[in-house]
Amino acid sequence: MKGFCAFLLLGAAGAASAQAADGERGFYVGARAGVANYPARPKLIVGNATFRSNDTREEDLSWGFDVGYRFSKHFAFEAGYLDLGEGTAKMVDATGANLQGDLRFSARGETLGVVALFPIGRKWEPYGKLGVLFQDVDFRFSGTQAGVPFTLSSSSRREGKLYLETGVSYRFDAHWKASLGLTHLSDIGDKDRTGRADIRNVFLGLSHAF
Known about the structure:
The protein is mainly beta. The chain has 1 helix and 10 strands. The protein has one domain: Beta Barrel (Porin).
């Protein structure tokens, strides 16, 4: 009888554990808003001319959303969209020639990511994400040379770029949580068509689990 009771207790513990694990599974949606930070001193080479910035707007608003599925307590998969706004800079020819212009560089695109989660108690949840941004990058450089206007523009579409994200979430209850995170994206853009930029994105997010 004692052995039978022990067997029942083990079975009940196993069922409770399975229910707890199932409670971590399911779909969720999230939205985020933040600030994207572009390079402070961009450099641009056009033909034989090298341009450097003398006035840069490094920061712009960013936003995005995610739809995800949590497989377990520690792993999830996400698909979403991220808009990193636009970085701008006033550029002058480094040689001092009468050549100047305005540079605009913007990035956005769909995302896919694998998320590793590390719950601490019932409220706090640090996490890390390895993602891919299917980038839509636009480059535009317009200005004047000796009073004559010119415009150069190009785009990079659908090229996948890996990125890293880290952050921490706070659970309000079983369904809602808020997050503070940092996304680091390296070499966004195309070397030959748009140039490349390293972008950091600091954001606040809110998500709901179903």
